Amino acid sequence: MSLLEVRDVTKVFGTLTALGGASMTVADNEFHGLIGPNGSGKSTMLKCIAGAEIPTSGSVVLSGKDITGATPPERSRAGMSLKFQITAVLPQLSVYDNLLLAVQAHQPMLGLLLSRSRRALDEKVMDLLGQFRLADRRDDIAGTLSHGQQQWLEIAMALSREPKLLLLDEPTAGMSPQERRVTGDLIAPIKTRCSLLIVEHDLDFIKDICDSLTVLDQGRIVATGPTAQVQKDERVKEAHLSHG
Ligand SMILES: Nc1ncnc2c1ncn2[C@@H]1O[C@H](COP(=O)(O)OP(=O)(O)OP(=O)(O)O)[C@@H](O)[C@H]1O
Ligand SMILES: [Mg+2]
Predict the structure, then answer these.
(1) What is the DSSP letter of 141?
(2) Segment 19-35, tens digit of pLDDT
(3) Ligand showing the shortest atom-to-Cα distance for residue 13
(4) Beta strand 65-66 with 57-62: parallel, antiparallel or unpaired?
(5) Per the domain annotation, does 150 fall within a domain?
(6) For the chain, what is the mean pLDDT?
(7) Nearest CA to ligand 1 atom 7
(8) Considering every ligand atom, which ligand is closest to the CA of 36?
(9) 73 and 171 share a domain?
(10) 58 and 9 in one domain?
(11) pLDDT the model gives residue 108
(12) Residue 155: inside a domain, yes or no?
């Protein structure tokens, strides 16, 4: 059984069909890239999975459970975590406090009163800050981080809830080539912990980190499967090069 199954999902906005019967799967501990030209339906697909949009028809199944109409908190409890293009970082708070808030959100209230649990929280926050190269910025105001560092903080925040599936929509948008390379290095080790579904424009970036790719063109899936196989597909080259 796949961790995530998207079954024949259609999403219609007025007269526009953003997704026209799209099916794809993500396995446990798989890194899956979603690519395609502008307006091909990538963000709509991620939103239908995350619950920010409800499909017009079709279904979304996580760990065998139908979550098509579930609320975002229900999806979060089912093991899904996401980072969208709009930032969730609170710029006036310190880097540490931003992450602490994210980590605390998933702790039972009573536990927070115990110093033992507070120490465990601190360890978890520092551990995540270390993994995302932000430990030396812990006391700085989050608004002073570079664009790339803010994205890394957000990925750390999304991971703090220990999801089974992490959804990322263009995490490297607006990053320098150097920050992009570091992002690849920072994301790679999370494979032992969860699956990843990542939307990206930059094929070179995701082909190196993803096991599988799905290519969308005008709301339809042109190809889906192992990265090496999809990359060779002639229709993929056409779809990507003609509008991409
Ligand atoms: N809320 C909405 N209302 C109306 N149309 C929408 C809405 N959201 C998306 N669309 C349209 O659906 C189509 C797919 O959009 P989507 O944002 O999913 O594309 P995308 O592949 O993420 O594009 P990009 O690469 O530019 O981010 C586009 O034509 C877009 O204009
Ligand atoms: Mg998009």
Answers:
(1) B
(2) 999 999 999 999 999 99
(3) 1
(4) antiparallel
(5) no
(6) 90
(7) 13
(8) 1
(9) yes
(10) yes
(11) 67
(12) no
Give the C-alpha separation, 37 to 244, whole Å: 5
Residues 76 and 184 occupy one common structural domain: yes
Q: How many residues make up the chain in this entry?
A: 244
The residue whose C-alpha atom lies closest to atom 11 belonging to ligand 1 is 18
Same domain, 18 and 101: no
pTM above 0.90, yes or no: yes
Q: What is the pLDDT of residues 126-175, one digit of tens each?
A: 999 999 999 999 999 999 999 999 999 999 999 998 999 999 999 998 89
Its domain, for residue 138, covers 90-144
Q: Is residue 152 part of a domain?
A: no
**Do 73 and 14 fall into the same domain?**
yes
The Cα-based distances of 195 to 131, 208, 223 in angstroms read 17, 16, 20
Task: Find the 126 Cα to ligand 2 centroid distance in Å.
Answer: 32
For a mutational test of ligand 1's pocket, the pick from 19, 43, 240, i.e. the residue with the most ligand atoms closer than 8 A to its C-beta, is: 43
CA–centroid distance, residue 132 to ligand 2 (Å): 25
Pocket of ligand 1 (CB under 6 A): 13, 16, 18, 36, 38-44
Does the structure show a pLDDT above 70 at 216? yes
The number of distinct structural domains making up the chain is 2
Q: What is the best residue among 38, 44, 168 to mutate for testing ligand 1's pocket, by most ligand atoms within 8 Å of CB?
A: 44
Residue of the CA atom closest to atom 17 of ligand 1: 43
Q: Residues within 5 Å of ion ligand 2 by Cβ?
A: 43
94 and 66 in one domain? no
Residue 156 included in any domain: no
Which CATH number goes with the domain that contains 25? 3.40.50.300
pLDDT tens digits, 106-139: 776 666 666 677 788 899 999 999 999 999 999 9
Ramachandran angles phi, psi of 234, nearest 5° = -60, -40
Nearest to 156 by CA among 179, 127, 118, 185: 127
- Give the ligand at the shortest distance from the Cα of 52: 1
Report the alpha-carbon distance of residue 208 to residue 199 in Å, rounded.
Answer: 14
Residues 200, 100 share a domain: no
Quote the ligand 2 centre to 169 CA distance (angstroms).
Answer: 7
